[in-house]
Amino acid sequence: MKGNERQLDLRIRRTHKLLWEALFELMTQPKQKYSAITINQICERAMVHRTTFYQHFEDKNALLEFGLKQTQEDALTVPLLDRLTKPFQVTEQFLRHKEIGKIIESQMDDEQFINFMTHQTREMKKQENEELQRLCKNHTIPSELIIEFHSGVLTTLSAWWLKNRKEVSAKDMDQYFHAMINQDIFQFEKE
After folding, report:
1. What is the pTM of this model?
2. Are the CB atoms for 58 and 39 separated by under 8 Å?
3. Mean pLDDT of 21-41
């Protein structure tokens, strides 16, 4: 790599770091909702010009996605069997990450943030697609349907659990999850 290219790479990484840190600081301030944070606020805190922001990110969602990607990659290193059998305990470990835990604690009342995280969770679950396809290949149900069901259910239940996790432990939530997907919970009459 030439000296100029490496210098450019360092400047890009520095800009990304400054913008992510600014968004993180804003999101973890008391009573600061993600939906109310502006690009101007992020740029002021990062001491980066607004046009520079848009050279690197489309919007604040793209910046948030960038910041969360590093921790998401950590989550995907957890063995698939653990992610499938103990999804809430794995999520709880993920929430112990100092940045993610702080952000989620600060933003649980912001609907825009919850919608963003729901989308991100669903996308992360879909990334498991190849691994799940291998496990689903002997079913009569199409594997795509199984994957959509699994990612949808976990995404929805994760959003509920994050709001109620003081009352329901991750271990209990894993047990409830397995009970719901493995039993006829509605007990319809058999004809």
Report:
1. 0.73
2. no
3. 95
